[in-house]
Amino acid sequence: MENVHILTQRVSGRGDFLPFSAEHTQTNESAATHDLVTELQTSLVIEDVLAIYAKFAKQLLNFSGLQFQSTLGTAQTSDSNTNTNPYIFDLSIGREHLGQLIYFSQYPISSAIENKLRALHTALVYPLRNAMMYSRVLKLATKDALTGLNNRSQFNDILSQKLENCRRYQRPFSLMLLDLDNFKQVNDNYGHKVGDDVLKEFSKVLCSSIRGTDSVFRFGGDEFSLIIEDPEFTTNKVIAERIMCLVRTSSLMAKYKVTTSIGFTLANSQDCETEIFARADKGLYKAKASGRNCAKAY
C-alpha cells in the first residue's frame, strides 16, 4: 500500500469520513457532471430542470429544499422543505443575471462543498436559461399582453380539460362570461389609453373576486370569462354580486360610468365546448336584454 495517497471527505449530515483516491474521485465527478449535463437537456420546464439538478446536488449536500428565484417568480422542487437555513448562490452567464439558487439545509456548507456546488452550477446555468426563455415564450402564447390574464387560447385548452374531467371523474364546474357596459363610449370619447386603464382595473376586480382554484380569461376587447370550480348557481350568484359591487365602488369605473353584464351556466357530463359556451353566452344576452349591469343564469 505504499505510494497510495488516501483522502477523506465529510459526508454532510452524517459526520463520518469516507476514504477515496483523488484520481478516482476526479474521474467520478467528471462522469457525474457529464451525466448531469445530458439529463438537464431533456426538459425545458424550470421545475423539471431543478428536480434533475437536485438529484445530482444531493450527492454533495444533504439539503431539504431547493428554490430558484428569478424575474419569472419562484420555482422549487416538489418535496422542498424551506424551514431550514438558506444558502444563496447567484447564477449568471457572463453579465446576464439569471436569478438566485437557494439550498435549504440544517447542515453548514463547507468551502469545499461550496466550490463543488459552484462547479455543478456551470452545468446548470445554460439549461436553466433555456427553460426560462421557453417559459417566457409560453407565457406570451397563453397570456393577454395588456392585463396579464389567460388568453383565449389558454381558455380553450383549460375548458377542454375541465370538460374531460367532468365526463370522466364527475367533476362539474361553472362557466361565466362577462363584458363591460358602455365600454365603447369610453374608447370613443376618452381614447384607448383610458380604455386600457379600465380593462386593467376590471381585470383586478375579477382576480380579487374569485378563489385560487378558479381561472380568469380575457378574450379580447371587453370580453372576459371565468371558469369556477363550483357547480352551484348560488356560488355563481355570490361571485357575480361581488364583481358588480367592486365595479360600482371602483372610482375609475364609476368615473366613466362603466358597469358589467354577466351570464353563467353549469357544466354537465354531456357538454362539449360549443354547447356550454353557447349557454353562458345566452345568459349574457339575457343580462344585456334586462337592462345591463346584472347577472343571468342559463
TrEMBL record:
Residues 171-298 form the GGDEF domain. GO terms for cellular component: plasma membrane. GO terms for biological process: cell adhesion involved in single-species biofilm formation; negative regulation of bacterial-type flagellum-dependent cell motility. Pfam families: GGDEF (PF00990). InterPro entries: Diguanylate_Cyclase (IPR050469), GGDEF_dom (IPR000160), Nucleotide_cyclase (IPR029787), Rev_trsase/Diguanyl_cyclase (IPR043128). Its EC number is 2.7.7.65. GO terms for molecular function: diguanylate cyclase activity. Its cofactor is Mg(2+). This is diguanylate cyclase. It comes from Pseudoalteromonas espejiana.
